[in-house]
Design brief:
Four copies of one chain form a homotetramer.
Chain A (H helix, E strand, L loop, with lengths): L1 H25 L5 H8 L3 H7 L3 H26 L2 H16 L3 H8 L6 H24 L9 H17 L3 H12 L9 H5 L35 H11 L1
Helix pairs in contact in A: 1-2, 1-4, 4-5, 4-6, 4-7, 5-7, 5-8, 5-9, 6-8, 8-9
Chain D binds a DNA duplex through helix 1 and helix 3.
Chain lengths: 239, 239, 239, 239
DNA sequence: AATGAATGAGGTTTCATTCAT
DNA sequence: GATGAATGAAACCTCATTCAT
C-alpha cells in the first residue's frame, strides 16, 4: 500500500510537470486529454489527482509560486538587500516568461477562487514583502513602492519579455524598467529631510518648451528650460 | 439598396462593438452565440460579417488599433515631441487596459495570420515610429530605444495596469515605468559627445553597499558609494 | 410590365441553367447561395422562381427530361425503329453522364413528390414507350422488354459511364450492355418472317476477334470480322 | 482492461452496423446524431471510433468490401471459373443494392482519400481480378474485358437493381446485362477447341419466350425454352 | 421584380467529466 | 489506484428560407 501510495505520488508529479510544460507551450486551451496523453496516463488518473481543470491550473501555478519562494530565499541569503530584490524580480520574470498564459489565468481573470491558491500565493507575497522591506530599509528602493506594485510590475515584466520579438532587447528593457524602482539620485538636502524632496513637486521636471527631462538639482533656482535655445524660443513666443 | 447596405453596416458596427465589450469583460473564450445574443442579432448575422471567430477577434483588434492611430495623430499635433510620445503611450495603455485579452491574443500567440491585421498594425507602428523619432530628435527619449521596445513596453504597461489591484497606483506605476525611456540626466560633456558617456561602463552604477543608483557625472572621480553613510558602513565592514 | 416579365423569364432561365451546371459539377449538396452567386443573382431571386430547393432540383430534372423528349422525337424521325431506340438510349446516357447526382436524386430517393415531376416524366416515358414499341414491332428488340426495364437500364448506363475511369471504355461497355436488349439469335422460321431486315439479329454485331462494332448491312453475307487484319489473326489462331 | 476493450469493440461494431443500415435507408445525408441515437450511444462515442463522418462512411464501405472479398473466395472455391465470376457479380449487385448511396459516395465523388480505403479496395479488386482471369482463361468471358470494366458494370448493375420498380424484373435485367460479358457466339473452329464445354457460349442461355435462365448441360440438344408452357406459347405466336 | 441581409435550427466536432472494468 | 470508453452539453459553422429595402 505504501508502494501504491508512492506510485500515486509519482503519478501526480508526472501529471503536474507535464501540465506545466503543455500549458506553457500551447496555452490554457489544451484539453486534459492531451495532457493525459503527453503524461502517459489515462484521463481518469488526471482526474483522480486534480478533480477539475481549474484545480489543475491552480496546482501548476502554486507549484510555480512555491519554487519562486525558494528562489526568494536564496536571493535573500546571498546578496545585499537591494540586489537581492532586483535579482529575484529578474529571475521571476525570466522563469515566468514562458508561462504567460498560466500567470494570466490568475492575474487577469478575477473569477478565480483565490482561496485555493491561498497558501502558495501568500507565501510568495510574504517573501516578496520581506525582500522589498529589506531593500527599502537599505535605501536601495524607493520608499513609496508597495508589494502590490511589485506584483503588477512582475506581470508587466513578463509581458514585456514574452512580447518582445528580440529576446536580448526584451531582457534589457525589463532591466531598464526595474530600475525605475531604485531610489532616485538624491542630494544632501534631500537625504537630510527624508521623504521631502525639495523640488519634488514644485519644480518643473520637463522643459516647458521641448519637454526634455530637466536635471533635478537640490539647490538653486530650478531651471525652466533645458537650455538657452529653448529659453530663447519661449521668449520669442511670449512676445 | 443603399438603405439595406446602411442597415448592414449598422449591424456590423453593433456586432463589432458588442464583441469588443464582451471580449473585454469575459475574455476571448466567450462563445459567438453569446456575442450574437448580446448584440441582439442571430448567430448567422455575426457569421455573415465575420466568417470566423478569429476574423472577429482580428477585426476588434484592428478597430482598436485604428482608433489608436487617430490618437497618435492628435498627440503629434498638439504637444511637443517628447510629451506627445509619452502622452500617447499613456493613452494607449489606459484605453487598452480593459482589452488585455484581445491584445494578448495578438502578442502572445504567434499563430496569427498577420497578413489580415497588416493594414491596421502597420499604420499603428508607423504612427509609433514617427512619435518616437521626433521625441528622440528632440532629445526627450533615450537614443537607444527602438519601436519594438515600445511595443513590448506597451504590452507590459497594459499588463501592469490591468493587474494592479489599485487603479490609481497602477497608473502611477505605469508612469514611473515609462520614465525609464527618458533621456537620463546628462552633463555638458555628455551632451557634447553624444552616445559616449564618460564612465558609462567603467564607473560603478550602483552603491557598492546599498545598491542605490549612483548619479552619473561625466567628470571627476566616480563615487563608489551613495553617500557618507554607506561609505562609513563599508569602511567598518572592511576592518 | 411586359419588359419586366421578359426580365423575369430570362432570370429564371439563367438560374435554371446555372443550377444544372453546378449540380452536375458539385453534386446536390451545394448551397443555393452558391448557385445564386454563380448565376449572378440574389438569393431571393432564386426563391422567387423556385420556392424551395427540392422544387429547383425537380425543375432541373424536368428541363433535362424535356430536352430528352425532343431528342427522342428527332431519333424517331430519322432512323429505322431499332436504331432509333438504341441511338436515343445512348444519347440519354451520354448527356446524363455528368448529371448523375441529379438523376439519382430522382431514381434513388423514393421520397420525391412524383406529382410535381409528373408532366415531364410522363412525356419522357411516353416517348420512350413509343420508341420501344416500334423497335419491338420491327423485331429489333426482345419482346420481353418493358419501359420500366429501359428506365432502369438508363440509370445503369449512366452509372457505368460516370464510374468508368476510362471514358472510351465506359462508352464501349455501355454499348455492349445495350446490345443485351437486342433480339437474341433466333431460328430459321423466325428469321424468315417478312418485314424483318435479313441480318438484323442473326448476324454477329461485333468483330469476333477484337470486339469492334460491325456495320449492319441488310444484304450480302454479313462480315464476321472488322477487317482483313482481324480475319487473318483469327485464321492463324484457328490452326 | 481486456473487458473494457471488448466493450469498446462491441460498441464499434454496433455503430458500424447501425451506420450501414441508416446510410442504406436514408442516404448519406443523415446526421451522425441520428446514427448515434439509433445505435443507442452518445455522439461522442461515434466520434471516438470514427473521428469524422467521412471516416465512418469509409469504414462502412470497407466493411462491405471486406465481406465481398469473402464472397469472392467462396465463389472461386465452389464453381467453375465462368460461373464463379457471374455468381459473384450477381451477389455483389444483390447485396449492394440497398447500399447504393454508400457506393456512390465512393465511385461518384473523386475527392475521397483513396489511401484510407486502400486495403479493402485493393483486396476487392484483387479478388475480382482473379475471378476474371480464370473466367477468361476458361473462355467463358470475352477476352477484351478488363477489371475496371467490371467495376463500372457493378456500379451499373447496382443502379439498375435499385432503380427498377419491379424487383424481379430488375434482377432479370441485371442478369441479361451481365451476359454481355460472355464470349460471343463463335465459329466452328473455335468451338471445337478442347477444354471448352460444348454449349457454353453458343447455346441460348435464356428462355426465348420469358427470359428465364436455362440450365446448362454439356450434352444433348440445348433447350430453347424453359418448359412446355413457353414452348407452346412461342409456337402459337409463330403461326 | 430583385436584392442580399437576417434568421435560427441543425450539422459536425470537441472536451470536461464520469464510471465500468 | 489506473485505465480509457462513454457521455452529452456546447462550441463553431452552414444554409434553406424569410423579409425589409
Amino acid at each position: 500500500m505504501a508502494a501504491a501510495r508512492a506510485d500515486a505520488r509519482r503519478n501526480r508529479e508526472t501529471v503536474l510537470r507535464t501540465a506545466m510544460c503543455v500549458f506553457a507551450e500551447e496555452g490554457l486551451g489544451v484539453s486534459l486529454g492531451r495532457i493525459a496523453q503527453r503524461a502517459g496516463v489515462g484521463a481518469g488518473t488526471v482526474y483522480r489527482h486534480f478533480p477539475s481543470k481549474d484545480i489543475l491550473v491552480e496546482a501548476v501555478l502554486a507549484e510555480h509560486l512555491e519554487s519562486l519562494v525558494g528562489a526568494a530565499d536564496r536571493w535573500a541569503a546571498r546578496a545585499v538587500p537591494g540586489e537581492a530584490l532586483f535579482g529575484f524580480l529578474l529571475e521571476v520574470i525570466d522563469t515566468s516568461a514562458g508561462r504567460l498564459p498560466v500567470c494570466e489565468a490568475i492575474t487577469t481573470d478575477g473569477s478565480w477562487p483565490r482561496a485555493v491558491l491561498g497558501a502558495a500565493e501568500q507565501r510568495f507575497h510574504g517573501a516578496l514583502e520581506r525582500l522589498l522591506r529589506d531593500a527599502q530599509q537599505a535605501g536601495a528602493v524607493r520608499a513609496d513602492v508597495r508589494v502590490d506594485d511589485l506584483s503588477a510590475l512582475l506581470a508587466g515584466g513578463v509581458a514585456m519579455r514574452s512580447t518582445h520579438r528580440d529576446q536580448t532587447r526584451g531582457s534589457r528593457l525589463v532591466r531598464l524598467t526595474l530600475d525605475a524602482l531604485r531610489t532616485p539620485p538624491v542630494t544632501k538636502a534631500f537625504r537630510d529631510r527624508p521623504g521631502k524632496p525639495r523640488h519634488e513637486t514644485t519644480a518643473p521636471r520637463h522643459c516647458a518648451e521641448c519637454g526634455a527631462r530637466l536635471p533635478v538639482r537640490p539647490t538653486g533656482r530650478p531651471p525652466r528650460y533645458c537650455g538657452p535655445t529653448c529659453r530663447q524660443r519661449a521668449h520669442r513666443r511670449s512676445r
